[in-house]
Amino acid sequence: MNYIFDLAGVIINLDLERDTKALNYIGLPDFEGCIRQPEIAVPTLSYLNGLMSEQDYCDTIRPLCREGITDEDILWAMDDVLDTIPKSRIQMLLELRKHHKVYLLSNIYDRGWKIAKNAFHKHGVEPEDCFDQLFLSHELQLAKPDPRIFQAVINATGITPEDTLFFDDSRSNIETAKSLGFQAHLAPMNNLEEVFKINE
């Protein structure tokens, strides 16, 4: 059996309360509020998925923020949702990798990936210690739920979707994975263990 894990909200926890304070500081609503407004949602998702440059994103979003907000303020507000990785989750990945192929498939931007790597480093490990291969949207210039990013994983690893468990906290990503034959499981945000124990 092969395993594929999402990163944000599945491996690394998200702090929505802290992120709401950061977004409110720059003059935006909470994340859910941002997603409901296309003029905010479209560029924000493109940026967070690594498909838009920092400068282009800041130039696009700044007119929607309160007066005096800097580029660094905007980028900080986007980063502030990323929190920590529980030690138990690191141990789970290391143990799982002893007997299975384990992959990371993440919609992540460059700054966010650096924050995530630091979260691994706090436990004395590199992401590469926990995963056989990393598939990151900002490197591939593809993002879930686009079927092409799943196909890129299949092509690079040779895995069979039917023999692969995929864990993500996004329903749209789960639906795409299932349509391609993966055994896909919706993980409650910050609580992978709730569904992973069932499928170990």
Helices and strands, with pairings:
Blueprint: E1 2-5, H1 16-25, H2 31-35, H3 38-48, H4 54-61, H5 71-79, H6 87-97, E2 101-106, H7 110-121, H8 127-130, E3 133-136, H9 137-140, H10 147-157, E4 164-168, H11 171-179, E5 183-186, H12 193-199
Parallel strand pairs: 1-2, 1-4, 2-3, 4-5
Helix pairs in contact: 1-5, 3-4
Which segments are poorly predicted (pLDDT under 50) over 5 or more consecutive residues? Answer: none
SSE succession: EHHHHHHEHHEHHEHEH
Arrangement of strands in the largest sheet: 3-2-1-4-5
State the major sheet: 5 strands, parallel
- Percentage of helical residues? 40-55%
Estimate the mean pLDDT confidence.
Answer: 95
Rounded to an integer in angstroms, the radius of gyration calculated over CA atoms is: 17 Å
Number of separate strands:
5
Distance separating the two termini = 10 Å
Shape: globular
Q: Summary?
A:
By secondary structure, the protein is α/β, with parallel strands linked by helices. It has twelve helices and five strands. A five-stranded parallel sheet has the order 3-2-1-4-5, with helices on both faces.
